[in-house]
Amino acid sequence: MKLIVCIVSSLLAVVSPVGAQPDGYELVWSDEFSTEGRPDSASWNFENGFARNEELQWYQEDNATCRNGLLIIEARPESRPNPLYEAGSRDWRRKRPTVECTSSSLTTAGKHEFLYGRLEVRARIPVGKGAWPAIWLLGRDMEWPSCGEIDVMEFYRRQGVPHILANAAWGTDRRYVARWDSQAIPFSHFLEQNPDWASEFHIWRMDWDEDYIRIYLDDELLNEIRLAETFNGTPGEGRNPFRQPQYILLNLAMGGINGGEVSPETYPIRYEIDYVRIYQKK
Q: Which of 32, 58, 86, 238 could be stapled to 16 by a disulfide with Cβ–Cβ 3.0 to 4.6 Å?
């Protein structure tokens, strides 16, 4: 099968050294985060401000840096006036008088978008109370959820219990209402196998072809989404968002609808990404 990659840079030809490639695949793009300082602007965009899900953090560039071969996204307590504030507003972004926390969200929209293949991300995720790190993908040509969403990794607490999630969402006949194929695995499942799990790096992988999306954590299959079942409803024109290119997002959210209460002693929180790699079938 063919992987379609839309790349607006010369980075494809200059890839950092990597380990052994998976059998049957070839590397078509990666970021090894080997340059000190800001992430490569040829590959990454930054979200700015309050983004979604009534989350606590204000996204900004300053909270992401490359150091010692890692992309480090840090959530920090920072109190300052909310530039969007409007007295009496009912919009969650505007009714907050202050910003209480900052973090970063990076995306490859318009720079690296791909259809089918293998995505690998090696990362060490924060598991403190209120942390909501994620590795996910979105399509660009339609509004959510008809654009499609793939959550290769989310971590947060459900009813107070930490979980790791692997999900996909697409459109229904109701605008802004998604249909989900979600798997939520209690974090205890991974701790039982390795009590030091939270202090170590792990590999999240997505294998994506015309028929399935399969999401793995350290080679353990977490979810399998059958693309014959992922067609949008009427607002999404009946299209299948997972047979169109998507882009990558890496972010560290705090609190919000799913992140829950944040403990002050949790800060600062670091989400560390060793690499992001995209492979295609040879």
A: 32
